[in-house]
C-alpha cells in the first residue's frame, strides 16, 4: 500500500515547480481538499489510522493536481504526464482519477467524493487567493464570504477564474455555494502562514 505521505507530495510539487505562485496554488488547494477529506472521514465514521490516511489522500491530491503543469502545460500533456509518473511510483488510482477529472478536457468525469472535492476546490482556491491579494493587507484573514460573493458577480475581477466552475463545484459537493466558500475560506485562513497570505 502506498504510504500517501503529504510531505513527499509537497516535495514532488516543489521539485517540479519553480513558480512560487504555482506552489502556493497547490498548497491552497490542498488545505481546502484536506478540510473536505476531514469532513467526509467524519461522515463515514472513520477513526485513527484509517481517518488519517483518508485525509492524507485528499491533501496529496490537492498538492499534486498541477505538479506537472510547469513542465507540461499543454492540454495534450497536463495532467497526463504527471499521472503516468505518479502511477509508476504506485500512488493510488483513486488519487490519479481525481487528478485526471480536475481537467475538464481529460475525458474523465468527477465521480467520487474526492474527484468532486478536488474539482470544486481548484477554481475556488485561486479565486480566494485573488480576493486576498486585492486587500491592502494582502491577507486571507481580511477576506469575508460576503465580499467573495460580490466579487464573483464582478466580471472584471479575476477574469481567468471560471465562475461556472465555482458554482458547479459546489453543486457537485451538494452544497450551497455560500457554504463551499465559507469552508474553503476557513481552511485557507487556518493555513494563512503556510500560504503566505
Ligand atoms: Fe489547479
In short:
The protein is mainly alpha-helical and 197 residues long. It has helices spanning 6-16, 20-43, 48-64, 80-88, 93-101, 113-133, 145-153, 163-172, 177-190, 192-195.
Rounded to an integer in angstroms, the radius of gyration calculated over CA atoms is 16 Å
Order of helices and strands: HHHHHHHHHH
Largest sheet: none
Number of domains: 1
**Would you count the extended β strands for me?**
0
Strand portion: under 5%
DSSP helix fraction: 55-70%
Bound molecules: fe (ii) ion
N-to-C span: 35 Å
Estimate the global geometry from the Cα principal axes: globular
Secondary structure class reads mainly alpha
Mean pLDDT rating: 96
Low-confidence region ranges: none
Number of helical elements: 10
Task: Produce the secondary structure layout.
Layout (H helix, E strand, L loop, with lengths): L5 H11 L3 H24 L4 H17 L15 H9 L4 H9 L11 H21 L11 H9 L9 H10 L4 H14 L1 H4 L2
The chain binds fe (ii) ion.
The site of fe (ii) ion has 5 residues, from helix 2.
Amino acid at each position: 500500500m502506498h504510504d500517501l505521505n503529504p510531505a513527499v507530495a509537497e516535495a514532488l510539487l516543489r521539485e517540479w515547480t519553480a513558480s512560487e505562485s504555482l506552489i502556493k496554488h497547490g498548497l491552497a488547494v490542498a488545505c481546502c481538499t484536506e478540510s473536505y477529506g476531514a469532513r467526509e472521514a467524519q461522515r463515514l465514521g472513520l477513526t485513527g489510522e484509517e481517518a488519517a490516511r483518508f485525509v492524507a489522500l485528499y491533501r496529496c491530491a490537492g498538492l499534486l493536481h498541477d505538479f506537472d503543469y510547469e513542465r507540461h502545460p499543454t492540454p495534450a500533456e497536463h495532467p497526463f504526464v504527471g499521472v503516468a509518473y505518479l502511477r509508476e511510483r504506485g500512488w493510488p488510482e483513486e488519487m490519479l482519477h481525481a487528478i485526471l477529472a480536475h481537467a475538464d478536457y481529460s475525458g474523465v468525469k468527477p465521480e467520487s467524493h474526492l474527484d468532486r472535492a478536488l474539482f470544486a476546490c481548484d477554481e475556488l482556491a485561486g479565486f480566494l487567493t485573488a480576493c486576498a491579494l486585492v486587500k491592502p493587507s494582502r491577507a486571507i484573514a481580511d477576506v469575508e464570504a460576503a465580499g467573495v460573493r460580490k466579487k464573483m458577480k464582478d466580471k472584471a475581477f479575476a477574469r481567468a477564474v471560471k465562475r461556472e466552475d465555482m458554482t458547479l463545484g459546489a453543486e457537485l459537493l451538494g452544497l450551497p455555494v455560500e457554504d463551499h466558500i465559507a469552508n474553503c475560506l476557513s481552511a485557507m485562513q487556518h493555513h494563512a502562514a503556510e500560504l503566505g497570505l
